[in-house]
Amino acid sequence: MLTINNLHLTLGGNRILNGLDLSVPAGEVHAIMGPNGSGKSTLSYTVAGRDGYEPDHGDVTLDSESLLEMGPDERAARGMFLSFQSPPAIPGVATMNFLRTALNAQRKARGEEEMSSAEFLKVFREHAKTVGLSPEKLKRPFNDGYSGGEKKRMEMLQMALFQPRFAIMDETDSGLDIDALKMVGEVVNSLRGPDRGFLVITHYQRLLDYVKPDRIHVLAGGRIVHSGGPELAQELEQSGYEQFAEEAA
């Protein structure tokens, strides 16, 4: 499904990604863990197509189709979704109008029928209830006046609405309490299926108690230095990343 091959990227004269290789098959959830500055968020921005994150070398493909020549909107239309570490607010833009416009833009790009206001409202309300966002909160402009945890709930609402083929979650657990972590797990688990993949980027094992990964990869020095099963999260929680420092050198 998602394949990253020999990815190199330099920012501000510093090599951030250094020959990174990764493959996430359809139907699987993979997690990336690693120390600060190892390139985790840079990887997510590069795959999603953020401006300024153009690789020096390598390729990123989704179902064998290269993403690197596509803009972020084209990648989103292909089914790529990024949950930001720090979701932005857009003051003055109505939440439901914004999300319906974004959803229908993706559907149109894929040759699908646009969703009517009534259809959208029904689905929107169902998912809003699942993620714990009240109708009063949703009347505000997009993410305006939201706490950090509420912004993360809004991102899970977007993921449930858009039904992406591949989702990257960049430290979605940052600043979340136990109830919110459970909610993230519920949304991800409800979307798991044979034609969808996830890449979960996190510092800590706690999110992985709710989002059970198939594989865990350690990112250090801009590349994957170790991979293992779900039990690797507990090992990292107990011993840290220092053991992989030599491999990253």
How many domain modules?
Answer: 1
Q: What percent of residues are in strands?
A: 25-35%
Instruction: Please state the second-level CATH architecture.
Output: 3-Layer(aba) Sandwich
Mean pLDDT: 92
Query: How many strand units?
Result: 12
Share in helix = 25-40%
Structural class from helices and strands?
alpha/beta
> CATH homologous superfamily name?
P-loop containing nucleotide triphosphate hydrolases
Number of H- or I-type helical stretches: 9
Order of strands, widest sheet: 6-9-10-3-11-12
- The rounded distance between the terminal residues' Cα atoms is 29 Å
CATH structural class: Alpha Beta
CATH domain fold name: Rossmann fold
Oligomeric state of shown chains = single chain
- The ordered H/E elements are EEEHEEHEEHHHEHEHEEEHH
The low-confidence parts are: none
Tell me about the biggest sheet? 6 strands, mixed
Radius of gyration: 18 Å
- Taken from the alpha-carbon principal axes, the silhouette is globular
